[in-house]
Amino acid sequence: MTHRDQIVAACDHQLRASTFKDFTINGLQVAGREQVKRVMSGVTACQALLDEAVAWQADMVLVHHGYFWKNEPIAITGMKHRRIKTLMDHDINLVAYHLPLDAHIEMGNNAELAKRLGWKVEGCLDGELGEGLLWSGRLPQPQRIHTLAVQIAGTLQRTPMVIEAENDSDIERIAWCTGGAQDMIAAASEAGAQAFVSGEISERTTHLARELGIHYIAAGHHATERYGVQALGEWLADEYAIEHRFVDIDNPA
């Protein structure tokens, strides 16, 4: 077993959590038992994931989307009460990392997505690698938008929504940011990307893609952010004497 505070401190350090100005608390959000043997990871700390953690007798739940978001109601009632009560009744720790887990150069969501799809990372368009959220690079070989979409669908096991630009030439330069980053499309276009991949799509995104002349692929918020927390959990398992299990709670969004 490993002490909870040692695990949290290691994650904080590895992800450089204190350097990010975020919309939530990064690190320990709900304290449970001090000694940790089993860590269950998942994308979001929803009730279904907590129920799996209880059944597996997990000591810690590690997620990308935790609780206590900026501007959300403070009162612990209703759904929030049920979730937190589940953790406290079973003495389970909740640990969450949001932007630090998007940005990490090796096990972040953007890094892991590029790794799985074979994209060559060249840098970030909004900061240094490890700090920025809008990543850029090149495909292993030029390809058409439909070929890229099929590859993404096969890798993520989710059919993406594709907004095609009028220019149907082969794509070589690509930019991406996992999750809800559709409004970064303008910056991607200005930097010369021929295609931009993110998780979500808004009504305005279609018009931006068409008028900017850049392909847009909405590959799913959940689908694009499965991999960072898995990598972090596996890293913890390698570093410490703990068991790690990732549970993928189905989410088409």
Provide a concise account of the structure shown.
The chain has 253 residues and is an alpha/beta fold. It contains ten helices and 13 strands. The protein has two domains: 2-96 and 225-246, NIF3 (NGG1p interacting factor 3)-like (Udp-n-acetylmuramoylalanyl-d-glutamate--2,6- Diaminopimelate Ligase, Chain: A, domain 1, 3-Layer(aba) Sandwich); 103-223, 3-Layer(aba) Sandwich (Udp-n-acetylmuramoylalanyl-d-glutamate--2,6- Diaminopimelate Ligase, Chain: A, domain 1).
Question: What does this molecule look like?
Answer:
There is one protein chain. 37% of the residues lie in helices and 24% in strands. By secondary structure, it is an alpha/beta fold. The strands form three sheets. A six-stranded mixed sheet has the order 7-8-10-11-12-9, with helices on both faces. A five-stranded mixed sheet has the order 2-6-5-4-13, sandwiched between helices. Helix 8 links the parallel strand 11 (195-198) and strand 12. Helix 5 (109-117) packs across helix 10 (227-239). The longest helix has 13 residues, at 227-239. The two termini are 36 Å apart. 40% of the residues are buried. The mean pLDDT is 97. One of its GO terms (cellular component) is cytoplasm.
